[in-house]
Amino acid sequence: MLVDIICNHISERVESNQLSNDDCIKIIEHVGGYLNLKTIPDYAKENKISYNGAKHFRNVKEIFNVKFIIDNV
User: Fold this and answer.
1) Are residues 16 and 40 in the same domain?
2) Sheet harboring 37-39: ordered strands across?
3) What does each C-alpha distance from 39 to 8, 9, 44, 48, 49 come to in angstroms?
4) pLDDT at 73 over 90
């Protein structure tokens, strides 16, 4: 699968010191932009809904022990 190829490529580049921490952060931010990734409080505030409304009625995923809303439709 393509996702496996991408993940393996990133792993190889990190392990060979071709990607720095800053580079990895740029990758996370880039992909997060496509996902329209926001924390629950930020999403709720931006969309003028309650925290609980966002938490219970949006696409919530946990990444690095932090819950995010993915709203890319």
Assistant:
1) no
2) 37-39, 66-70, 60-63
3) 28, 28, 9, 14, 13
4) no
| E strand or H helix that includes residue 67 | strand 66-70
**Does 29 share its domain with 45?**
no
Q: What is the pTM of this model?
A: 0.82
Residue 5 has pLDDT above 90, yes or no: yes
Q: Encoding tokens for residue 65?
A: 């022990």
| Element holding 56 (H helix, E strand) | helix 51-57
- 40 and 23 assigned to the same domain: no
The candidate with the shortest Cα–Cα distance to 63, out of 45, 34, 26, 38, is: 38
Residue 11 has which token pair? 């792993």
pLDDT tens, residue by residue, 49-61: 999 999 999 999 9
What residue numbers bound the domain in which 18 lies?
A: 1-34
Q: In the chain, what percentage of residues exceed pLDDT 70? A: 100
